[in-house]
Amino acid sequence: MKSEFPLLDLCHFNEHTQVIVSRFGVFLKKFKKTTFPRRHDFYHMVLFTEGSGKFSIDYQTYSIKPFQFYFMAPGQIHDWHFEGNIDGYIINFPAQFFQSFLLNANYLDQFYFFNGNVQDCIIQVPEELRWTVVELIEKAILETLGDNKFKNDTVRVLLLLLFMEISNLDGRNRLSFVEPNKNALRQNFEKLIDENYLSLRLPKQYAELLHITPNHLNKLCNEMVGISAGDLIRNRIILEAKRLLINLKLTVTEIAYKLNFEDSSYFCKLFKKQTGMTPNAFRKHHNLHIH
User: Fold this and answer.
1) Which domain holds residue 256?
2) pTM across the whole model
């Protein structure tokens, strides 16, 4: 099915670069006509240093605060609405930017803020770390503007140092480092959900594909993500439902069928249970917000 949101690649912003590191004000002036809401097929980070307003990721809205860092994985939907002067930094790079540099192609998966869970995507940078964070980003900006033969590698190193500094703020990442097998298993489960959520709805079906027991899968999800395997599956279905509900040409019944529900009333009950509102209420609220 076709998404109702534009999926932008890095070429939309600059077809001749592998990475973008920029002051936010400069970036906004250059790409102020970019469509919102939107999705990217690359990693997208925004650090606000001043200003206010609202920032939403996958339909969850937050108030912008100075030195708030937003980390977004490929595919996530985001939107922003600013109040007054806004400034900070923006960083964009595709997954392969680090894959060609590191022996471990999945190295970035070790940082919890890239896991795609919205509650882990937003980090308030404490005062004692702000100078270090800004210095690393400013150095990366200078490298992208220079002609150093190794500038992309230098930017990679600076960004990795930045990610490590941010990750050290929270112990949640440690599990990924000491138990890489568990992390890989969780990632494989989430990839399988993305590929099969229209047809496979039960944890035991995914457990079979992963060659583990349903109990093992559920324990893993609760330990690493904080919710059950069933909730991870249901959350992915509901996220796709939200994306479809923005399209006013589709009825709720048609959306239910697109998501492989035989009974639209069951779809409505599940949606309300997971979100606290009916599909029509969600549609009305978010379309009013967008338009």
Assistant:
1) 182-290
2) 0.71
